[in-house]
Each structure stands twice: as structure tokens, then as C-alpha cells.
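ok so i was messing around last nite and threw this chain in just to see what happens. nothing serious, just curious
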Amino acid sequence: MNTRHNSIFMEGIRDGIPIGLGYLAVSFSLGVTARNAGLNAFQGFLASILNNASAGEYAGFTLIAANAPYLEMALITLITNARYLLMSCALSQRFSPDTPFFHRLLIGYDITDELFGITIARPGYINPFYTYGAIVVAAPCWAVGTSLGIMAGNILPLRAVSALSVALYGMFLAIIIPPARKNKVIALLILISFAASYCSAHLPVISGLSGGTRTIILTVAISAAAAFLFPVDPKKEDNTNDA
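result:
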């Protein structure tokens, strides 16, 4: 790893620390669900290190508790995590054309909402070592938190565990506020996204869909409209290349 890659890797670690702390808190409550499904600490750790997705894991643990067949678990997990396919497509457009395939593959292993947010917010082409740095912190915290939740069981009050997850909301704000302050279009799109997300949870028909499905529909609709109305100049993107 050369000096530049090492510097960017350390930036990823720095930005990954608050994400990891948030994951530690959220996955702790997920561990309680895993324990109720009959998983031990090692099984919970393995599940979380291989599938870093709260909604997908929660659905999986719930189905395990209900003795659901493997096919049903696979389908539900695929549907619940389908939004990550969109994130992968977005990230793939931000890699330099000469980026080796194995870098794309490794980053694809751990595309979460938060890691996607901090990665996509960087200017120019994506340097995979930045995301590696964040993953090195975030992924183990998620897996360890699940194990701790299983071991602790229901010792802590549910309210106390839920309160710890507030850190993730602050982390999301830290991701979206800086680019919104620099670009009025981004700020407008964020407000539209908030309003659309709220309305979709209460409107007939669409409110009956799962949260992941609603997220996919809104993401495609809003991003497509934004790309059509406010196209990005590729020359400006190239000028901010940090890879």
C-alpha cells in the first residue's frame, strides 16, 4: 500500500469509527432477537459478519424462530436487501474504469446505507481504500454487537437499547448536511426525499409495501427525476478525482 492509499485508508477508519459505534448499539438489540431465535453468540457473530444488514438479518432471525424453510428465508432476505443492488449500481459508476474487479468485489461485500453514504459523498472517482478503512471498523462492530446482544439477552431494558440507536440518526445527518450546504439542488432533493418517505408510509396501497420496497421505489423515482432535470457534468467530476 503506497503512501496515498495509506492516507486514504486512515481517513476511512476515521469516518468509520462513528459508524462502528452506531452499529455496535443497533446490532446489540438485533442480538436479542437472534437469541430468541435460538442462536448462540458464535452463530450470531457469523450471521452478522456475513450479512451486514439490519432489516435482512431481523427478517432472517424471525423466520428462523418460526422454523421457516430455507427457500422462504432466502427469498425474504433477497427482497429485504434488494435496495443494496441499487447502491451497488450507483457505486459502480463512480469507480475509475481501470479499477481491478477484485476491488469492486470486496466493496460489494459490505455495502450498507451508512458506508454507501460516506463513500458516494466523496468527490471524483472512488478510492476503494477509503471504503476498506471504514469496513475494517464497521463490520467487526456489527458482528460483535450481535454477539454481545445474544449473551446479554433481555438483561437490559428494551428502551435503553433502543436509545443507543439514536447515534445512527445523527450519523445520517452528518452524511447529508455537508453536501446539502454546498449544493442547493441536493438540499432540495433531500427535503423531497424526506417528504416522499413520510407520505409513502401513510398513503393507501404503497403503505402496505415493506419499508425496503418503498425505499427502492422512491430511490428509483427521485434519482431518475434528478438525473433528468439536473444532469452532472462529467468534466467537473473528473476535475475532482481523488483516486
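not much to say yet. The chain has 13 helices and no strands.
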